[in-house]
Q: What sequence folds into this?
């Protein structure tokens, strides 16, 4: 038989598992963030952390199609196939195409239509949907995903 009289017992009230001052500090932080964002929106403060509009070096209008398996097909403005990728290789392109379709559904514009693949100064590659105004900088998605779109700019 073991003697447990020497082991200290942890004592706490069930309603104070998180100290009260921590809960208050968390709500104060949320309130401060809410006030700052509201003040910025009400005063019309311009966005500051957006990338600058660098000059366009190369641009190509492309048509994307894909499915949930990751397979993707990319056509140029003339309807020529630029890439026909199986599910193992086209996952990122198919994912971008699904995002564009979702944005077009939200805006109520037709799902068909080209998107612009733009290479800007500073080696910045972006994709823009002119029908909705949606765009994404592709350099933030990793080198492999960047290259999957960058090779679509190369003349065939």
A:
């Amino acid at each position: 038989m073991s003697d447990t009289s020497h082991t200290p017992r942890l004592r706490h009230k069930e309603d104070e598992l998180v100290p009260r001052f921590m809960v208050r500090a968390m709500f104060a932080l949320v309130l401060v963030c809410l006030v700052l964002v509201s003040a910025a929106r009400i005063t019309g403060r311009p966005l500051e952390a957006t990338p600058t509009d660098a000059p366009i070096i190369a641009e190509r209008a492309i048509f994307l199609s894909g499915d949930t398996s990751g397979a993707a097909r990319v056509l140029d403005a003339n309807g020529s196939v630029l890439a026909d990728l199986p599910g193992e290789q086209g996952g990122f392109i198919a994912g971008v195409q699904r995002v564009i379709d979702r944005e077009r559904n939200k805006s109520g514009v037709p799902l068909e239509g080209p998107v612009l693949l733009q290479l800007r100064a500073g080696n910045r590659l972006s994709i823009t949907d002119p029908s909705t105004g949606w765009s994404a900088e592709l350099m933030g998605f990793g080198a492999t995903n960047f290259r999957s779109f960058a090779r679509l700019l190369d003349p065939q």
Q: What stands out?
A: The first strand starts at residue 56 and ends at 66.
